[in-house]
Design goal:
173 residues; mainly alpha; Arc Repressor Mutant, subunit A; 7 helices
């Protein structure tokens, strides 16, 4: 039997942590968390065990965060307005932080769903490969492969910026 109150009580902190890890902002993480549990109410999923519930919630959280990131990215491309600059951070530092955050989000969005879910479970929850495998219904070696490929893909995206920065740029006079 579906029990939203119990699901919320048992998982809200975990869902919030995942969302915060994906989006980096409290307000966005809170909105994502709320949307996850709203979807739970509307869909009333049934879970065989706690691992299945955790896996479903992680997948929904990840998908909502990525959908929000994509829609914001599209909106930014359509509308060049920028958020106000925080006085505590220098404008150039904020620009670098925003670019890095966008690169990380882009790298996560480019991963397969299973790679993204394994990476989130390992990095944000500190879950063991065995726990993740049981939760996702996969073999432990498969989970390890997804994790390593996800790390490699994210590292490749992030290191490409540093390689680009190190290349000589033509001087325009």
């Amino acid at each position: 039997m579906f029990d939203l109150e119990r699901l919320f009580r048992d998982h809200r902190e975990r869902v919030y942590r995942w969302a915060l890890g994906l989006c980096g902002r409290h307000a966005d993480a809170a909105d994502i968390c709320q949307e996850v549990f709203l979807r739970s109410l509307l869909r009333r999923p049934s879970f065989e065990n706690e691992s299945a519930a955790t896996g479903w919630l992680r997948r929904v959280t990840s998908n909502i965060a990525i959908d929000r990131w994509r829609s914001r990215r599209s909106a930014r491309l359509a509308d060049s307005r920028r958020e106000p600059i925080s006085p505590a951070i220098a404008p150039d530092e904020e620009l670098v932080q925003n670019e890095e955050a966008q690169r990380v989000r882009g790298a996560l969005a480019a991963l397969s769903e299973q790679q993204r879910l394994v990476l989130l479970a390992k990095a944000f929850d500190g879950r063991t490969f065995a726990e993740i495998a049981a939760e996702m219904g996969l073999a432990v070696p498969t989970v390890k492969t997804h994790y390593l490929r996800a790390l490699e893909a994210v590292a490749r995206v992030l290191s490409s910026k540093h390689e680009d920065a190190g290349r000589a740029r033509p001087v325009v006079r």
